[in-house]
Amino acid sequence: MNPLKRFFDNEAGNATEYALIISLVSIAIVAGAIVLGTGLSTLYEAVGQALP
C-alpha cells in the first residue's frame, strides 16, 4: 500500500496530523509577518530619512 493512501486512510491519526499541519502553517504565517513588518519598518525609516 502506498504511504499517501495509507496516510489518508488512517482515520485515527488524522485529527492529530491536521493539528500539527495547522500549527506549522500558523508558525510560518507569524514568522512571515514578523519578517515583513521588519522590512516595512526599515523601508519607512529609509524613506523618512530621504525626505527633507
Can you characterise this structure?
- There is one protein chain.
- The protein is mostly helical.
- The chain is 85% helix and 0% strand.
- The protein is built from two helices and no strands.
- The protein has helices at 3-9, 14-50.
- 0% of the residues are buried.
What is this structure, in a nutshell?
By secondary structure, this protein is mainly alpha-helical. The chain has two helices and no strands.
Strand % is: under 5%
Supply the number of helical segments: 2
Subunit organisation of the chains: single chain
- The count of strands amounts to 0
Order of helices and strands: HH
Q: Mind telling me the C-alpha Rg?
A: 21 Å
Mean pLDDT: 86
Q: Between the first and last Cα atoms, what is the distance in angstroms?
A: 68 Å
Shape: rod-shaped
Residue windows where pLDDT falls under 50 for at least 5 positions: none
Secondary-structure-based class equals: mainly alpha
Biggest beta-sheet profile: none
The percent of residues in helical segments reads over 70%
Search tags:
85% helix; rod-shaped; mainly alpha
Helices and strands, with pairings:
Blueprint: H1 3-9, H2 14-50
